[in-house]
Design brief:
The structure is a homodimer.
Chain A: E1 9-14, H1 25-32, E2 36-40, H2 41-46, E3 55-59, H3 64-74, E4 79-84, H4 94-104, E5 109-112, H5 117-125, E6 126-127, E7 133-137, H6 145-157, E8 161-165, H7 175-184, E9 192-197, E10 205-210, E11 225-229, E12 235-237, E13 240-242, H8 247-250
Parallel strand pairs in A: 1-4, 1-5, 2-3, 2-4, 6-13, 7-8
Antiparallel strand pairs in A: 8-11, 9-10, 9-11, 12-13
Helix pairs in contact in A: 3-4, 6-7
């Protein structure tokens, strides 16, 4: 990676699930040390207190490419943070920003990881994700539908815990019901399911149910919801989900 | 969940990949407010500065069940943190602690998520994990070998980015080579691969290579290594890995 001779630098910062208290110290330090902070309005608002000293460049959802290009351009001469909800990698900005930097590059880039929406949701639900898991986005804006469906089939068949991001995309609200039907081919109706909306943010909603009853909550589920489907060993404990890691095969309590 | 009448509380705290700067503010607050901190020696040492005011209960790796039981017991009357490397869920302590609490319970439990080793490794490698991914541990201590192999086959076949935790277990050092052979049935030899050891800690090692050459690094890979295998669209950019999220199908740069 070549470095420019100027003082610029670009941080791609995972800010975590939303509340400022889930920011890492490293992410906070990068934000506090940045002359410019680039991001979409929702994430900028969540970080308002931390970034109040910086010049803010905000764009709406969907303006990702323009935002990435602007951040790369500014980082030739300035210290810039571009912020990503959750982790910088997991459905985050790192990919797009590096793609832009690769083409328009000659900037120094540092990526700062964050707490994923998945980890935040799992914590609220108990311990659903302590064994092998697969993470699938139902957004067919960027991935062809047949690839998504193949992944759902494979993950369900191989008994992965399944985390579903973007269960409802704006124009294709039927994708979620279809995904549930695929998973039900392989997994019993009493499989525990967690539905988490706005984890750590205003309007936080945590629901535990089962695969057979999940469509009762169809109206609740939207783009900002994360759905976690247990594996064949997961069980409900009150309103929590426990997926044993296998200790019960090895130890007596 | 019933709550005890005493003042006790149990935090299950994901401390992140290792360095203190990857701790969230919420995790730090829980640790600073705990009378007891329970964990294995490695993680306690990483957090030494933060937990110096607490009573420390340390046990070696493998003493997980005993440690969980002790933490649950103490939390009836005290504020206790039990610490988990990375996230509390992802191969973390949340599962075991809730299993113990379920049996010996009547304690108040709060789970605090953390930055996973996976997110830390991905950040060091660039942007390998921005699309759908599967996470598999090769440790056959807690999961039967045939289940692990089925998951490797399914994840490779469905073109998930694959993250491998515990690539070498203490007694079965051949598992990793076998896993690579399974993945190579489905993915080309020039698929980018990242090998990250001790992310954010002393001895941090970051290697980018390809699936065909991965066994050249066989001696480097140990229990504390995370291996990331790209999907069919991943590519190398210098010493970084980029997995396009699909923007190239949608936008012109």
């Amino acid at each position: 990676m070549s470095r420019s001779l100027s003082q610029g630098k670009l941080y791609i910062v995972g800010i975590g699930p939303g509340a400022v208290e889930y920011l890492t110290k490293k992410a906070e330090k990068a934000l506090l040390g940045s002359e410019y902070v680039v991001g979409n309005g929702t994430y900028l608002d969540q970080m308002a207190e931390v970034i109040k000293g910086a010049k803010i460049i905000r764009s709406g959802m969907g303006g990702e490419v323009e935002r990435a290009r602007k951040a790369v351009e500014l980082s030739r001469e300035h210290v810039v943070s571009i912020i990503s909800g959750g982790d910088a990698n997991v459905y985050g900005m790192a990919g797009l920003v590096l793609e832009v930097a690769e083409k328009e590059g000659d900037v120094e880039v540092e990526i700062i990881p964050g707490v994923t929406a998945l980890s935040a949701a799992a914590s609220l639900l108990g311990a659903p994700v302590v064994s092998d898991f697969a993470v699938i986005s139902l957004s067919d804006l960027l991935t062809p539908t047949d690839v998504i469906e193949r992944r759902l089939n494979s993950a369900a068949e191989a008994d992965f815990v399944i985390a579903i991001y973007n269960p409802k995309s704006r124009n294709r609200r039927q994708n979620f019901g279809k995904a549930v039907e695929i998973i039900r081919k392989y997994r019993s109706d009493d499989t525990p399911v967690g539905i988490v909306k706005n984890a750590t943010r205003e309007g936080e909603t945590v629901i535990t149910t089962t695969l057979g009853k999940i469509m009762d909550y169809n109206e609740t589920i939207d783009m900002s919801t994360l759905v976690l489907i247990g594996n064949s060993e997961s069980r409900l404990w009150g309103n929590r989900i426990i997926t044993p890691r296998g200790y019960q095969r090895k130890y007596e309590y």
